[in-house]
Amino acid sequence: MAFWKQFVLSLIVIVAGFAAWVFFVPGAGDTMRDAGIPDSFVSKIAPKAEGTADADAPARAQGQQRGEGQNRRNGGGRNSAILVATQAVVQGVVNDRLNAIGTGDAIRSVAVTPQASGTIREILIKSGDRVKAGQVLATLDSEEQVIARGQADVAVKAAVEKSNLYHNIKSSVSRMDVFDSEIAEQGARLQLQAAELNLARRNIIAPIDGIVGIVPVNIGDNVTTSIPIVTLDDRSEILVDFWVPERFANTVSVGQPVEAMSVAKPGQVFSGMVEAVDNRIDAASRTLRLRAKIGNSSDELRAGMSFSVSMKFAGDKYPAVDPVSVQWDSQGSFVWQVNDDKSRKVRVSVVQRNPDFVLVKADLKDGDKIVTQGLQRVREGGAVRVSGDVASNGEVATQ
């Protein structure tokens, strides 16, 4: 397209746009006057806009004066107040719950070893059996001990006969002979007791009530007093040892309730109580050892299981606010509190951060309104209106 055609087309577009602005935009005449265009020219090309503006000017000025007066009386007016959203302060608790991992053990557990060395002749139990204290678990070869007991029995009988004889003929024997016979009788009886004890030790006896573990020996094995024959567990109750941080040292005590969950029983909570508290803090880990006792009447738990242990405490109470409400400046952290439709900066010290709220140390109480939205425009002592408040026209104010 030729240059002159482009120029003419551009000029037509400019003129059309100017005409549309003049006839459709209120106040176009005033704008042209401000730009220095003579009034005679303006009145010719924009009479309608000019007339409308002149007619509305007195009413508009009067309304503006009334609005300014009302704003002055209201301290700026509700429409000038900053719209914000708030959330009430609630009470939060810190250090109110303790979670730890512990290991379970039977309330009583005994590795049974023989009291004498020898060859196993008989095994009377198997893994999983319930046994009572005093029950024979296994026996060792005892032929030698049986012979020794027989010899001691014969010696006792001979000593008794000799002692009785000396007592009957006291007149013909010395008192020293009678005394010697009595001593011999007592010695023979002691030898018999020793022989019977050695024979009894050939039986391996259960020292406690419990459940038999895996038996690691067989008939014919030669065992000594250092070789365990079997392990017995009394798991009517389970002891769980766990460690807690040092800050709980003055909080925990014997008798406090605990709850434990086993990895083998997910979702099932077992109740118990603190059975013992150690007397010192571990210097390496800065933790305190505790022992809890959990009932196991249904025999669902085993020694060696891992447990997740939890305890509840009264804890320390602090005001809790929404995380987004905490702001920072050169002096530290603060929140905006709304009181009587005015904003006030309250200094806070963060105690603990949680996903849903922040615990702070501040001059706040339950129910105080804290700004959570519109924070960028809030100023100290400024007028605010809370989202959801009823406006003067009866409508709910929304942002």
From TrEMBL:
Residues 241-312 form the CusB-like beta-barrel domain. Residues 49-77 are annotated as: Disordered. Residues 108-226 form the Multidrug resistance protein MdtA-like barrel-sandwich hybrid domain. The chain crosses the membrane at residues 7-24. It is found in: Cell envelope. One of its GO terms (molecular function) is efflux transmembrane transporter activity. InterPro entries: Beta-barrel_RND_2, MdtA-like_BSH, MdtA-like_C, RND_pump_MFP. Keywords: Membrane, Transmembrane, Transmembrane helix, Transport. GO terms for cellular component: efflux pump complex. Belongs to the membrane fusion protein (MFP) (TC 8.A.1) family. This is Efflux RND transporter periplasmic adaptor subunit.
